[in-house]
Amino acid sequence: MIYAIEPRPAPRMTRCDRWRKRPCVIKYFEFKDDCRRLNIKVDNYDHITFGIQIPKSFSRKKQKEMVGKPHQKRPDCDNLLKALLDSVYKEDSHIHALTINKVWSEHGYIEIRSNTNES
User: Fold this and answer.
1) Is residue 15 helix, strand or coil?
2) β pairing state of 109-114 and 2-3
């Protein structure tokens, strides 16, 4: 299943984020609301791909070259996964095996494929 939503990392929250709303915190909570609205589900053994949008500052040639290639910059996979699981589950301790990767894309997305072998 592919969800057309821009992946966001989980920010490091501080006590002052309760009254001083930093832009990264506002975007994170918007991301969580969007994930709940889209009813995203993650199960054990799923394969999750985060498509990170290519910056507009890249040349058109570089943008075309980068589509589908591994994204090796920030945000980290673990921060993206933490934000996703925190938005989908209140308690995510039952998740024990996932495969994750992140790639460059024209538009941000989250793809969740099931890897369970049902025989």
Assistant:
1) helix
2) antiparallel
Name, in order, each residue with C-beta under 8 angstroms of 47's C-beta and a sequence gap of 6 or more.
98, 99, 100, 112, 113, 114, 115
In one letter, which amino acid is 97? A
CATH number of the domain enclosing 53: 3.30.1330
Model confidence, pTM: 0.88
Kindly state the average pLDDT of the residues 48-59: 95
Cα separation, 11 vs 76, in Å, equals 11
Centre a 10 Å sphere on the Cβ of residue 87 and count the other Cβ atoms it contains.
Answer: 21
Q: Do the beta carbons of residue 111 and residue 51 sit within 8 Å? A: yes
Buried-state track 44-60, b at ≥16 Cβ within 10 A, e below 16: eebebbbbbebeeeeee
| 54 inside domain | yes
